[in-house]
Write a structure and sequence with these properties.
- This protein is α/β, with parallel strands linked by helices.
- It has two domains: 2-137 and 278-322, Rossmann fold (3-Layer(aba) Sandwich), CATH 3.40.50; 141-275, Rossmann fold.
- The protein is built from twelve helices and 13 strands.
- It has helices spanning 15-30, 42-46, 54-57, 81-91, 103-114, 139-160, 175-183, 198-210, 248-260, 280-298, 318-322, 330-337; strands at 2-7, 33-37, 49-52, 96-101, 119-123, 163-168, 188-190, 216-220, 232-237, 243-245, 264-268, 304-309, 312-317.
- Strands 3-2-1-4-5 form a five-stranded mixed sheet, sandwiched between helices. The chain has a four-stranded parallel sheet with strand order 7-8-6-11, with helices on both faces.
- The longest helix is centred in the middle third of the chain and has 22 residues, at 139-160.
- It binds 6-O-phosphono-beta-D-fructofuranose.
Length: 341
């Protein structure tokens, strides 16, 4: 069997570990050969490929990013996109596809399997917002990076008696803010799921100063004030119709300064959270996903996705992951609130 692999959407530490594991097991155990599709769905859509075998996956386990490249190309928005992908796969002799991606990439994989194309999915996103899997790889790395940043912000905030705000990724789900804020001892965490009350945030900030510590606020890029709107970068949309976020941290700093008269500054972690080497946890999870994904191909389990449930890697229908997003439950946020103020 000839298997195509693609990585789509925002990149994420651990993508190379998935590719390596699928290729290693596919070649040595099942006698498959592989083709790498370049730059997400753009690869199969335009027939852009690269050689993919044991030599190409040597040494890539700890490498961040993806050797295949990625993009947010949406073939469902291209006229005849599905037919073009089918034709290209036929011409290249590709019998099956492994799509590694988040909500958007796996949404396309779902549509393609419904159109008769043999594909399996692997869940990826630093945001950890895909359903049916307890964790996505990349999340642990992003949380580790953000936690280290918050640790560093504590000491400088205290030297200068100022409020420091750390803006992290998380469009609809506040998992990165919740986990890094909790691990880093932030004293306010603001997430998209719970619109915040500005007066309450100011009270928490003031009470922190009263205890002679400097306030650290960890905020998701998708967080918003009660009755307010999302703060966007420039209003532009990506190919899947998502508006580009970033700016809520700056906005909040301005509001806090106005209300408290104290200096507030913002650090936006941005793509630093997505770059670099994966943590050991992410390397292991991504490797286990790759091993199971190629097994799903061998079993011709089309339309399924590999997922972590407890400590097991299982197969679930692709739709189970992308139908609705996994957001932070109220109880999890309330746990963190014990440390606010
Ligand atoms: O991968 C998802 C994500 O991390 C979101 O949290 C964020 O809004 C988005 O990627 C930004 O990605 P890019 O800058 O590549 O469009």
């Amino acid at each position: 069997m000839r298997v195509g692999i693609l990585t789509g959407g925002g990149d994420c530490p651990g993508l190379n570990a998935v590719i390596r594991a699928a290729v290693r097991r596919g070649v040595s155990e099942y006698g498959f050969d592989f083709v790498g599709f370049r730059d997400g769905w753009k690869g199969p859509l335009e027939g852009l490929t690269m050689e993919l075998g044991i030599p190409q996956v040597r040494g890539i386990l700890p490498r961040g990013g993806t050797i295949l490249g990625s993009s947010r190309t949406n073939p469902l928005k291209v006229e005849g996109g599905i037919e073009r992908i089918k034709d290209n796969m036929k011409q290249l002799g590709v019998d099956a596809l492994i799509a590694i991606g988040g909500e958007d990439t796996l949404g396309v994989a779902t549509a393609l399997t419904e159109a008769g194309l043999p594909a399996v999915g692997v869940p990826k996103t630093i945001d950890n917002d895909l359903n049916a899997t307890d964790y996505t790889f990349g999340f642990d790395t992003a949380v580790t990076v953000a936690t280290e940043a918050i640790d560093r912000l504590h000491t400088t905030a205290e030297s200068h008696h100022r409020i420091l705000i750390c803006e992290v990724m998380g469009r609809h789900a506040g998992w990165i803010a919740l986990h890094s804020g909790m691990a880093g001892g932030a004293n306010v965490i603001l997430i998209p799921e719970v619109p915040f009350d500005l007066d309450q945030v100011v009270d928490w900030v003031e009470s922190r100063f009263r205890s002679h510590y400097a306030p650290i606020i960890c905020i998701s890029e998708g967080a918003l004030p009660k009755g307010g709107d999302l703060v966007t970068k420039d209003g532009s949309l990506d190919a899947f119709g998502h508006v580009k976020l970033s700016g809520i941290g700056e906005w909040l700093a301005g509001q806090i300064e106005e209300r408290t008269g104290k200096e507030a500054r913002t650090t936006v972690l941005g793509h630093i959270q997505r770059g670099g080497t994966p943590t050991a946890f992410d390397r292991v999870l991504a490797t286990r996903f790759g091993l199971k994904a190629i097994e799903a191909v061998k079993d011709e389990a089309w339309g399924t996705m590999v997922a972590l449930q407890g400590t097991d890697i299982v197969r679930v229908p692709l739709q189970a992951a992308t139908g609705t997003l996994k957001t932070v439950p109220k109880e999890r946020y309330e746990e963190a609130m014990a440390f606010f103020g």
